Amino acid sequence: MNYDDRYQAGRVLTDLLKDYEKRTDVIVLALPRGGVPVAYEIASKLSLPLDIFIVRKLGVPGHEELAMGAIASGGITVFNEEIVNSLHISKEAINKIHKSEQEELSRRELAYRGKKPFPMLPGKTVILVDDGIATGYTMRAAIAALKKQNPAKIIVTVPVAARSTCDEIAPLVDEIICPMRPVNFYAVGMWYNDFSQTTDDEVMQLLKKI
């Protein structure tokens, strides 16, 4: 059974997160753009603060779909040292790609957050939200980056993900909440009746509401 859209998926997740309602030590972090409508429903229904956590993949030169690392909100960079070393990627190439992706991350930070400072996460329980997990690389990069912020707990919360991907991510976090875990996954959009692209404007409007 599919979700109607990201908002309805968020309401389903809200019912599984009731224990965190109105807790002052909890924050909801959304991976833009698709994760923001899902996270908005969770944060608004449970009276929790909502913010964004932007992750940008650092693609291997000439093979951009292959990730050699990622950068994330808060000035965090995570490298896949095995790929960097095995492919002998030069520092010059890494720096060029890092600069380009950092510019895009900064653009999104400014557009979405404005001058609002990045939230303080040490000792917080972080509910990390996306609209689904396909390969899992973006989520794994976000988790690695978040851990450097020393939160008390990280709870990955998604409406749908491949069962195998959930099994891979579960040991990396304190809890994973994913009510739909199909064996034959294919793509996130297959599990939504409406999976139209979330726009920058929609992200900004939702962040302003909370």
TrEMBL record:
<keyword id="KW-0328">Glycosyltransferase</keyword>
<protein>
    <submittedName>
        <fullName>Orotate phosphoribosyltransferase-like protein</fullName>
    </submittedName>
</protein>
<dbReference type="InterPro" id="IPR000836">
    <property type="entry name" value="PRTase_dom"/>
</dbReference>
<dbReference type="Pfam" id="PF00156">
    <property type="entry name" value="Pribosyltran"/>
</dbReference>
<dbReference type="GO" id="GO:0016757">
    <property type="term" value="F:glycosyltransferase activity"/>
</dbReference>
<keyword id="KW-0808">Transferase</keyword>
<dbReference type="InterPro" id="IPR029057">
    <property type="entry name" value="PRTase-like"/>
</dbReference>
<feature type="domain" description="Phosphoribosyltransferase">
    <location>
        <begin position="17"/>
        <end position="169"/>
    </location>
</feature>
